[in-house]
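REQUEST
  id: r-88c1
  op: predict_structure
  target: UDP-glycosyltransferase 76C4
  payload:
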Amino acid sequence: MVKSNGLRVVLFPLPLQGVINPMIQLAKILHSRGFSITVIHTRFNAPKASSHPLFTFVEIPDGLSETEATTEDVTLLLTLLNQNCESPFRDCLNKLFQSAEKEKERISCLIDDSGWVFTQPLSQSLNLPRLVLNTFKVSFFTNHFLLPQLRHLTLLDSKQDDPVEEFPPLRKKEVLQILTEVLDSYSDMMLEQTKASSGLIFMSCEELDQDSLTQAREYFNVPIFMMGPSHIQFPASSSSLLSPDESSISWLDKQEDKSVIYVSFGSISTVSKSELMEIAWGLSNTDQPFLWVVRGCSDVQGKEWTEAIPEELMERLKEKGKIVKWAPQQEVLKHRAIGGFLTHNGWNSTVESICEGVPMICLPFRWDQLLNARFVTEVWMVGIHLEGKIERNEIEKAIRRLLLETEGEATRERMELLKEKVGSSVKQNGSAYRSVESLIDYISSF
Ligand code: UDX
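RESPONSE
  id: r-88c1
  status: 200
  body:
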Protein backbone atom coordinates (compact mmCIF):
# COMPACT_ATOMS: atom_id res chain seq x y z
CA MET A 1 0.00 0.00 0.00
CA VAL A 2 1.47 3.37 -1.06
CA LYS A 3 1.50 6.13 1.54
CA SER A 4 -0.66 9.10 0.46
CA ASN A 5 1.16 12.42 0.02
CA GLY A 6 -2.06 14.35 0.72
CA LEU A 7 -2.25 15.71 -2.83
CA ARG A 8 -4.99 15.01 -5.33
CA VAL A 9 -4.63 15.17 -9.12
CA VAL A 10 -7.73 15.60 -11.29
CA LEU A 11 -7.60 13.95 -14.72
CA PHE A 12 -9.96 14.69 -17.58
CA PRO A 13 -9.33 12.46 -20.64
CA LEU A 14 -11.03 12.92 -23.98
CA PRO A 15 -13.44 9.99 -24.36
CA LEU A 16 -11.38 8.13 -26.98
CA GLN A 17 -9.70 4.76 -26.38
CA GLY A 18 -6.34 6.04 -27.64
CA VAL A 19 -6.44 8.87 -25.08
CA ILE A 20 -8.01 7.01 -22.15
CA ASN A 21 -5.24 4.37 -22.15
CA PRO A 22 -2.28 6.77 -21.65
CA MET A 23 -4.29 8.88 -19.19
CA ILE A 24 -5.07 5.86 -17.00
CA GLN A 25 -1.41 4.79 -17.21
CA LEU A 26 -0.37 8.24 -16.04
CA ALA A 27 -2.92 7.98 -13.22
CA LYS A 28 -1.35 4.67 -12.17
CA ILE A 29 2.15 6.20 -12.17
CA LEU A 30 0.98 9.14 -10.03
CA HIS A 31 -1.01 6.91 -7.68
CA SER A 32 2.03 4.68 -7.17
CA ARG A 33 3.84 7.82 -5.98
CA GLY A 34 1.26 8.74 -3.34
CA PHE A 35 -1.16 11.02 -5.24
CA SER A 36 -4.91 10.53 -4.91
CA ILE A 37 -6.64 10.39 -8.28
CA THR A 38 -9.98 11.73 -9.48
CA VAL A 39 -10.97 11.03 -13.08
CA ILE A 40 -13.69 13.27 -14.50
CA HIS A 41 -15.16 11.64 -17.57
CA THR A 42 -18.03 11.96 -20.02
CA ARG A 43 -20.95 9.55 -20.12
CA PHE A 44 -19.91 8.67 -23.68
CA ASN A 45 -17.09 6.09 -23.67
CA ALA A 46 -16.94 6.15 -19.88
CA PRO A 47 -13.93 4.23 -18.53
CA LYS A 48 -14.75 1.16 -16.42
CA ALA A 49 -14.55 2.49 -12.86
CA SER A 50 -14.71 -1.05 -11.43
CA SER A 51 -11.32 -1.84 -13.03
CA HIS A 52 -9.68 0.91 -10.96
CA PRO A 53 -11.04 0.71 -7.41
CA LEU A 54 -8.28 2.98 -6.07
CA PHE A 55 -9.37 5.97 -8.19
CA THR A 56 -12.44 8.17 -7.83
CA PHE A 57 -14.52 8.51 -11.01
CA VAL A 58 -16.99 11.34 -11.59
CA GLU A 59 -19.24 11.34 -14.63
CA ILE A 60 -20.45 14.49 -16.38
CA PRO A 61 -23.18 14.69 -19.05
CA ASP A 62 -21.89 15.21 -22.62
CA GLY A 63 -25.17 15.89 -24.46
CA LEU A 64 -24.25 13.62 -27.40
CA SER A 65 -27.09 11.98 -29.30
CA GLU A 66 -26.81 8.31 -30.27
CA THR A 67 -25.89 9.23 -33.87
CA GLU A 68 -23.32 11.81 -32.76
CA ALA A 69 -21.72 9.26 -30.47
CA THR A 70 -21.08 6.84 -33.33
CA THR A 71 -19.56 9.33 -35.78
CA GLU A 72 -16.11 8.60 -37.21
CA ASP A 73 -15.64 12.35 -37.78
CA VAL A 74 -13.28 13.07 -34.89
CA THR A 75 -13.23 16.84 -35.57
CA LEU A 76 -17.03 16.99 -35.29
CA LEU A 77 -16.97 14.86 -32.16
CA LEU A 78 -14.38 17.11 -30.50
CA THR A 79 -16.33 20.24 -31.43
CA LEU A 80 -19.55 18.85 -29.94
CA LEU A 81 -17.84 17.60 -26.80
CA ASN A 82 -16.17 20.98 -26.23
CA GLN A 83 -19.49 22.77 -26.71
CA ASN A 84 -21.46 20.46 -24.45
CA CYS A 85 -19.05 19.74 -21.62
CA GLU A 86 -17.86 23.19 -20.53
CA SER A 87 -20.61 23.99 -18.08
CA PRO A 88 -20.95 20.47 -16.53
CA PHE A 89 -17.16 20.32 -16.16
CA ARG A 90 -17.08 23.73 -14.42
CA ASP A 91 -19.82 22.63 -11.97
CA CYS A 92 -18.02 19.37 -11.32
CA LEU A 93 -14.66 21.06 -10.66
CA ASN A 94 -16.28 23.57 -8.30
CA LYS A 95 -17.87 20.74 -6.32
CA LEU A 96 -14.53 18.92 -6.12
CA PHE A 97 -12.92 22.06 -4.73
CA GLN A 98 -15.64 22.43 -2.11
CA SER A 99 -15.33 18.84 -0.92
CA ALA A 100 -11.51 19.01 -0.93
CA GLU A 101 -11.73 22.08 1.30
CA LYS A 102 -14.03 20.24 3.70
CA GLU A 103 -11.70 17.27 3.87
CA LYS A 104 -8.59 19.44 4.13
CA GLU A 105 -7.10 17.90 1.04
CA ARG A 106 -5.28 19.84 -1.67
CA ILE A 107 -5.99 19.50 -5.38
CA SER A 108 -2.57 20.08 -6.85
CA CYS A 109 -3.35 20.20 -10.56
CA LEU A 110 -5.58 19.29 -13.47
CA ILE A 111 -4.20 17.05 -16.20
CA ASP A 112 -6.32 16.94 -19.33
CA ASP A 113 -6.00 16.40 -23.05
CA SER A 114 -4.89 19.09 -25.49
CA GLY A 115 -8.19 18.48 -27.31
CA TRP A 116 -10.19 20.17 -24.53
CA VAL A 117 -10.14 23.87 -25.36
CA PHE A 118 -12.17 25.34 -22.50
CA THR A 119 -10.25 24.00 -19.51
CA GLN A 120 -7.29 26.44 -19.45
CA PRO A 121 -9.23 29.66 -18.66
CA LEU A 122 -11.33 27.70 -16.20
CA SER A 123 -8.38 26.29 -14.29
CA GLN A 124 -6.69 29.72 -14.37
CA SER A 125 -9.77 31.28 -12.78
CA LEU A 126 -9.52 28.70 -9.99
CA ASN A 127 -5.75 29.15 -9.64
CA LEU A 128 -5.34 25.51 -10.51
CA PRO A 129 -2.24 24.60 -12.55
CA ARG A 130 -3.17 22.69 -15.72
CA LEU A 131 -0.88 20.18 -17.42
CA VAL A 132 -1.67 19.01 -20.94
CA LEU A 133 -1.33 15.36 -21.87
CA ASN A 134 -0.81 14.75 -25.54
CA THR A 135 -1.11 11.39 -27.22
CA PHE A 136 0.65 12.25 -30.49
CA LYS A 137 4.29 12.04 -31.43
CA VAL A 138 5.96 15.29 -30.29
CA SER A 139 6.84 16.26 -33.86
CA PHE A 140 3.24 15.83 -34.98
CA PHE A 141 1.78 17.92 -32.19
CA THR A 142 4.33 20.69 -32.70
CA ASN A 143 4.32 20.84 -36.49
CA HIS A 144 0.59 20.47 -36.99
CA PHE A 145 0.16 24.00 -35.65
CA LEU A 146 2.19 25.24 -38.61
CA LEU A 147 -0.13 23.58 -41.10
CA PRO A 148 -2.43 26.56 -41.79
CA GLN A 149 0.66 28.31 -43.22
CA LEU A 150 0.89 25.53 -45.80
CA ARG A 151 -2.52 26.12 -47.33
CA HIS A 152 -0.79 27.48 -50.43
CA LEU A 153 0.21 23.90 -51.36
CA THR A 154 -2.08 22.44 -53.98
CA LEU A 155 -2.79 19.04 -55.41
CA LEU A 156 -2.64 20.46 -58.91
CA ASP A 157 0.99 19.83 -59.74
CA SER A 158 2.59 16.44 -60.14
CA LYS A 159 4.94 16.58 -57.16
CA GLN A 160 2.60 15.01 -54.65
CA ASP A 161 5.22 12.60 -53.37
CA ASP A 162 7.77 15.35 -52.67
CA PRO A 163 8.79 15.75 -49.04
CA VAL A 164 7.51 18.87 -47.28
CA GLU A 165 10.43 20.71 -45.71
CA GLU A 166 8.33 22.18 -42.89
CA PHE A 167 6.92 18.79 -41.86
CA PRO A 168 9.44 16.00 -42.44
CA PRO A 169 9.18 13.20 -43.41
CA LEU A 170 5.61 13.77 -44.66
CA ARG A 171 4.85 13.90 -48.37
CA LYS A 172 2.95 16.79 -49.92
CA LYS A 173 -0.18 14.69 -50.54
CA GLU A 174 -0.19 13.67 -46.84
CA VAL A 175 0.16 17.25 -45.61
CA LEU A 176 -2.76 18.18 -47.86
CA GLN A 177 -4.83 15.32 -46.45
CA ILE A 178 -4.11 16.35 -42.86
CA LEU A 179 -4.93 19.97 -43.76
CA THR A 180 -8.48 18.98 -44.69
CA GLU A 181 -9.03 18.07 -41.04
CA VAL A 182 -7.48 21.21 -39.53
CA LEU A 183 -10.00 23.68 -38.14
CA ASP A 184 -7.96 26.88 -37.91
CA SER A 185 -9.98 28.46 -35.10
CA TYR A 186 -9.88 25.29 -32.99
CA SER A 187 -6.19 24.83 -33.68
CA ASP A 188 -5.42 28.47 -32.68
CA MET A 189 -7.30 28.02 -29.42
CA MET A 190 -5.51 24.77 -28.66
CA LEU A 191 -2.11 26.35 -29.29
CA GLU A 192 -2.84 29.42 -27.20
CA GLN A 193 -4.07 27.30 -24.31
CA THR A 194 -1.18 24.86 -24.49
CA LYS A 195 1.26 27.77 -24.33
CA ALA A 196 -0.63 29.16 -21.32
CA SER A 197 -0.57 25.80 -19.50
CA SER A 198 1.87 24.77 -16.78
CA GLY A 199 3.41 22.03 -18.90
CA LEU A 200 3.07 19.33 -21.50
CA ILE A 201 3.27 15.56 -21.04
CA PHE A 202 3.87 13.25 -24.01
CA MET A 203 3.43 9.52 -24.21
CA SER A 204 6.79 9.20 -25.86
CA CYS A 205 10.48 9.22 -25.00
CA GLU A 206 13.63 10.99 -26.18
CA GLU A 207 14.63 7.88 -28.11
CA LEU A 208 11.56 8.27 -30.37
CA ASP A 209 11.33 12.04 -30.47
CA GLN A 210 14.87 13.36 -30.35
CA ASP A 211 14.35 15.17 -33.64
CA SER A 212 11.70 17.50 -32.30
CA LEU A 213 12.14 18.01 -28.56
CA THR A 214 14.35 21.10 -28.73
CA GLN A 215 12.02 22.72 -31.24
CA ALA A 216 8.96 21.82 -29.12
CA ARG A 217 10.55 23.27 -25.97
CA GLU A 218 11.25 26.57 -27.75
CA TYR A 219 7.87 26.65 -29.47
CA PHE A 220 5.59 25.99 -26.48
CA ASN A 221 7.90 27.55 -23.90
CA VAL A 222 6.53 25.39 -21.08
CA PRO A 223 8.18 22.43 -19.30
CA ILE A 224 7.87 19.22 -21.35
CA PHE A 225 7.78 15.77 -19.76
CA MET A 226 8.07 12.43 -21.54
CA MET A 227 6.24 9.67 -19.69
CA GLY A 228 7.64 7.00 -22.03
CA PRO A 229 5.96 3.75 -23.03
CA SER A 230 4.38 3.40 -19.60
CA HIS A 231 2.19 0.46 -20.66
CA ILE A 232 5.30 -1.68 -20.12
CA GLN A 233 4.84 -1.19 -16.36
CA PHE A 234 1.10 -0.52 -16.29
CA PRO A 235 -0.72 -2.55 -18.99
CA ALA A 236 -3.52 -0.71 -20.79
CA SER A 237 -5.85 -3.72 -20.85
CA SER A 238 -7.65 -2.52 -17.70
CA SER A 239 -8.73 0.67 -19.50
CA SER A 240 -10.21 -1.12 -22.49
CA LEU A 241 -13.69 0.14 -23.35
CA LEU A 242 -14.61 -3.09 -25.14
CA SER A 243 -14.15 -6.60 -23.76
CA PRO A 244 -11.08 -8.17 -25.35
CA ASP A 245 -11.59 -11.63 -26.83
CA GLU A 246 -9.26 -13.71 -24.64
CA SER A 247 -9.60 -16.74 -26.91
CA SER A 248 -7.14 -14.86 -29.18
CA ILE A 249 -4.34 -15.94 -26.84
CA SER A 250 -5.26 -19.64 -26.67
CA TRP A 251 -5.51 -19.59 -30.48
CA LEU A 252 -2.05 -17.95 -30.73
CA ASP A 253 -0.67 -20.63 -28.39
CA LYS A 254 -1.34 -23.16 -31.15
CA GLN A 255 0.60 -21.24 -33.84
CA GLU A 256 4.28 -21.40 -34.71
CA ASP A 257 6.78 -18.78 -33.59
CA LYS A 258 6.67 -15.49 -35.53
CA SER A 259 4.21 -16.91 -38.05
CA VAL A 260 1.07 -14.86 -37.38
CA ILE A 261 0.17 -11.48 -38.85
CA TYR A 262 -1.91 -9.39 -36.44
CA VAL A 263 -4.34 -6.98 -38.15
CA SER A 264 -5.98 -4.10 -36.30
CA PHE A 265 -6.85 -0.49 -37.09
CA GLY A 266 -7.41 0.86 -33.58
CA SER A 267 -10.58 2.15 -32.04
CA ILE A 268 -11.80 4.75 -34.55
CA SER A 269 -10.89 3.90 -38.15
CA THR A 270 -12.92 1.37 -40.10
CA VAL A 271 -12.63 0.19 -43.69
CA SER A 272 -15.38 0.08 -46.31
CA LYS A 273 -16.99 -3.17 -47.42
CA SER A 274 -14.88 -3.34 -50.60
CA GLU A 275 -11.66 -2.64 -48.64
CA LEU A 276 -12.64 -5.32 -46.14
CA MET A 277 -12.94 -7.77 -49.03
CA GLU A 278 -9.49 -6.85 -50.35
CA ILE A 279 -7.96 -7.41 -46.91
CA ALA A 280 -9.85 -10.72 -46.59
CA TRP A 281 -8.52 -11.93 -49.97
CA GLY A 282 -5.01 -10.66 -49.20
CA LEU A 283 -4.94 -12.58 -45.91
CA SER A 284 -6.48 -15.65 -47.45
CA ASN A 285 -3.98 -15.71 -50.34
CA THR A 286 -0.89 -15.90 -48.11
CA ASP A 287 0.06 -19.09 -46.30
CA GLN A 288 0.43 -17.25 -43.02
CA PRO A 289 -2.07 -17.52 -40.17
CA PHE A 290 -3.62 -14.23 -39.04
CA LEU A 291 -5.47 -12.66 -36.13
CA TRP A 292 -7.78 -9.95 -37.45
CA VAL A 293 -9.73 -7.41 -35.41
CA VAL A 294 -12.88 -6.33 -37.26
CA ARG A 295 -15.10 -3.82 -35.45
CA GLY A 296 -17.40 -3.31 -38.42
CA CYS A 297 -17.47 -1.62 -41.81
CA SER A 298 -17.85 2.09 -42.49
CA ASP A 299 -20.63 1.46 -45.02
CA VAL A 300 -22.40 -1.57 -43.48
CA GLN A 301 -24.70 -1.11 -40.53
CA GLY A 302 -24.23 -3.07 -37.30
CA LYS A 303 -22.89 -6.58 -37.30
CA GLU A 304 -23.89 -7.38 -40.87
CA TRP A 305 -20.35 -6.95 -42.16
CA THR A 306 -19.73 -10.71 -41.99
CA GLU A 307 -22.42 -11.12 -44.64
CA ALA A 308 -20.32 -8.98 -46.98
CA ILE A 309 -17.81 -11.84 -47.18
CA PRO A 310 -18.87 -14.77 -49.42
CA GLU A 311 -19.36 -18.04 -47.54
CA GLU A 312 -16.56 -19.86 -49.34
CA LEU A 313 -14.03 -17.14 -48.53
CA MET A 314 -15.23 -17.03 -44.93
CA GLU A 315 -14.62 -20.77 -44.64
CA ARG A 316 -11.05 -20.32 -45.93
CA LEU A 317 -10.48 -17.43 -43.53
CA LYS A 318 -11.69 -19.50 -40.59
CA GLU A 319 -9.36 -22.35 -41.53
CA LYS A 320 -6.27 -20.15 -41.53
CA GLY A 321 -6.97 -17.44 -39.06
CA LYS A 322 -9.08 -15.94 -36.34
CA ILE A 323 -11.37 -12.92 -36.54
CA VAL A 324 -12.30 -11.09 -33.32
CA LYS A 325 -14.17 -7.90 -32.46
CA TRP A 326 -11.56 -6.62 -30.01
CA ALA A 327 -8.25 -8.23 -29.00
CA PRO A 328 -6.12 -7.97 -25.87
CA GLN A 329 -3.63 -6.08 -28.07
CA GLN A 330 -0.68 -5.78 -25.74
CA GLU A 331 -0.80 -9.47 -24.85
CA VAL A 332 -1.17 -10.32 -28.52
CA LEU A 333 1.86 -8.27 -29.54
CA LYS A 334 3.86 -9.87 -26.74
CA HIS A 335 3.02 -13.38 -27.93
CA ARG A 336 5.87 -15.43 -29.43
CA ALA A 337 3.63 -16.41 -32.39
CA ILE A 338 3.25 -12.86 -33.71
CA GLY A 339 5.50 -12.10 -36.69
CA GLY A 340 4.10 -8.78 -37.90
CA PHE A 341 1.43 -6.14 -37.33
CA LEU A 342 -0.73 -4.73 -40.13
CA THR A 343 -1.63 -1.47 -38.43
CA HIS A 344 -3.20 1.98 -38.95
CA ASN A 345 -0.26 3.39 -36.93
CA GLY A 346 -2.19 5.10 -34.16
CA TRP A 347 0.51 6.33 -31.78
CA ASN A 348 -0.44 3.82 -29.05
CA SER A 349 -0.35 0.89 -31.47
CA THR A 350 2.95 2.08 -32.97
CA VAL A 351 4.65 2.39 -29.57
CA GLU A 352 3.17 -0.91 -28.34
CA SER A 353 4.49 -2.69 -31.45
CA ILE A 354 7.96 -1.17 -31.00
CA CYS A 355 8.04 -2.20 -27.35
CA GLU A 356 7.35 -5.82 -28.31
CA GLY A 357 9.77 -5.76 -31.24
CA VAL A 358 7.04 -6.50 -33.80
CA PRO A 359 7.75 -5.09 -37.30
CA MET A 360 4.83 -3.37 -39.00
CA ILE A 361 2.95 -3.17 -42.29
CA CYS A 362 1.70 0.40 -42.34
CA LEU A 363 -1.76 1.38 -43.51
CA PRO A 364 -2.38 4.82 -41.99
CA PHE A 365 -5.82 6.36 -42.52
CA ARG A 366 -5.60 9.92 -41.26
CA TRP A 367 -4.06 12.64 -39.10
CA ASP A 368 -0.97 11.70 -37.01
CA GLN A 369 -1.09 8.11 -38.31
CA LEU A 370 0.35 9.38 -41.62
CA LEU A 371 3.42 10.78 -39.86
CA ASN A 372 3.88 7.78 -37.57
CA ALA A 373 3.87 5.45 -40.59
CA ARG A 374 6.61 7.51 -42.30
CA PHE A 375 8.76 7.36 -39.18
CA VAL A 376 8.25 3.58 -38.96
CA THR A 377 9.18 2.96 -42.58
CA GLU A 378 11.65 5.72 -43.49
CA VAL A 379 13.35 6.88 -40.30
CA TRP A 380 13.45 3.81 -38.04
CA MET A 381 13.04 1.42 -41.02
CA VAL A 382 11.09 -1.14 -39.00
CA GLY A 383 8.18 -1.67 -41.35
CA ILE A 384 6.77 -1.71 -44.86
CA HIS A 385 4.46 1.03 -46.16
CA LEU A 386 1.39 -0.01 -48.17
CA GLU A 387 1.18 3.55 -49.59
CA GLY A 388 -2.57 3.49 -49.07
CA LYS A 389 -3.07 0.54 -51.41
CA ILE A 390 -5.79 -1.58 -49.84
CA GLU A 391 -5.43 -4.21 -52.54
CA ARG A 392 -5.24 -7.99 -52.10
CA ASN A 393 -1.99 -8.40 -54.07
CA GLU A 394 -0.24 -5.57 -52.25
CA ILE A 395 -1.29 -6.96 -48.86
CA GLU A 396 -0.21 -10.48 -49.76
CA LYS A 397 3.14 -9.20 -51.09
CA ALA A 398 3.82 -7.11 -47.97
CA ILE A 399 3.06 -10.06 -45.65
CA ARG A 400 5.43 -12.30 -47.61
CA ARG A 401 8.17 -9.64 -47.62
CA LEU A 402 7.89 -9.16 -43.88
CA LEU A 403 7.42 -12.74 -42.71
CA LEU A 404 9.24 -14.87 -45.27
CA GLU A 405 11.95 -12.88 -47.04
CA THR A 406 15.42 -11.68 -46.00
CA GLU A 407 14.16 -8.09 -46.11
CA GLY A 408 11.87 -9.06 -43.22
CA GLU A 409 14.78 -10.47 -41.21
CA ALA A 410 16.75 -7.23 -41.56
CA THR A 411 13.65 -5.24 -40.57
CA ARG A 412 13.20 -7.44 -37.51
CA GLU A 413 16.83 -6.93 -36.49
CA ARG A 414 16.46 -3.14 -36.66
CA MET A 415 13.24 -3.45 -34.68
CA GLU A 416 15.03 -5.42 -31.94
CA LEU A 417 17.54 -2.58 -31.57
CA LEU A 418 14.80 0.04 -31.42
CA LYS A 419 12.86 -2.07 -28.90
CA GLU A 420 15.94 -2.20 -26.64
CA LYS A 421 16.49 1.56 -26.83
CA VAL A 422 12.85 2.48 -26.21
CA GLY A 423 12.40 -0.16 -23.49
CA SER A 424 15.44 1.10 -21.61
CA SER A 425 13.93 4.61 -21.44
CA VAL A 426 11.56 3.53 -18.64
CA LYS A 427 14.18 1.58 -16.70
CA GLN A 428 15.98 3.16 -13.76
CA ASN A 429 17.83 6.28 -14.92
CA GLY A 430 16.49 5.92 -18.46
CA SER A 431 15.33 9.12 -20.21
CA ALA A 432 11.60 8.63 -19.51
CA TYR A 433 12.28 7.41 -15.97
CA ARG A 434 14.14 10.65 -15.21
CA SER A 435 11.47 12.74 -16.89
CA VAL A 436 8.72 11.11 -14.81
CA GLU A 437 10.78 11.82 -11.65
CA SER A 438 10.92 15.52 -12.56
CA LEU A 439 7.20 15.49 -13.37
CA ILE A 440 6.45 14.14 -9.88
CA ASP A 441 8.69 16.81 -8.29
CA TYR A 442 7.04 19.48 -10.42
CA ILE A 443 3.48 18.48 -9.50
CA SER A 444 4.42 18.15 -5.84
CA SER A 445 5.78 21.71 -5.89
CA PHE A 446 2.46 23.33 -6.90
C1 UDX B 1 -6.30 7.62 -31.90
C2 UDX B 1 -5.17 8.00 -32.88
O1 UDX B 1 -5.16 7.22 -34.04
C3 UDX B 1 -3.85 8.01 -32.22
O2 UDX B 1 -2.80 8.27 -33.11
C4 UDX B 1 -3.88 9.04 -31.15
O3 UDX B 1 -2.62 9.21 -30.61
C5 UDX B 1 -4.92 8.61 -30.13
O4 UDX B 1 -6.19 8.49 -30.77
P1 UDX B 1 -6.71 4.95 -32.15
O5 UDX B 1 -6.98 5.20 -33.58
O6 UDX B 1 -7.70 4.21 -31.37
O7 UDX B 1 -6.29 6.31 -31.39
O8 UDX B 1 -5.34 4.09 -32.16
P2 UDX B 1 -4.20 3.84 -31.12
O9 UDX B 1 -3.51 5.09 -30.74
O10 UDX B 1 -3.36 2.81 -31.71
O11 UDX B 1 -4.93 3.29 -29.82
C6 UDX B 1 -5.68 2.12 -29.81
C7 UDX B 1 -5.54 1.45 -28.45
O12 UDX B 1 -6.52 0.43 -28.38
C8 UDX B 1 -4.19 0.79 -28.23
O13 UDX B 1 -3.73 1.02 -26.92
C9 UDX B 1 -4.46 -0.70 -28.44
O14 UDX B 1 -3.67 -1.55 -27.64
C10 UDX B 1 -5.91 -0.80 -28.04
N1 UDX B 1 -6.58 -1.91 -28.79
C11 UDX B 1 -6.81 -1.78 -30.14
C12 UDX B 1 -6.93 -3.04 -28.10
O15 UDX B 1 -6.70 -3.15 -26.91
N2 UDX B 1 -7.56 -4.04 -28.80
C13 UDX B 1 -7.84 -3.96 -30.13
O16 UDX B 1 -8.41 -4.92 -30.67
C14 UDX B 1 -7.44 -2.81 -30.83
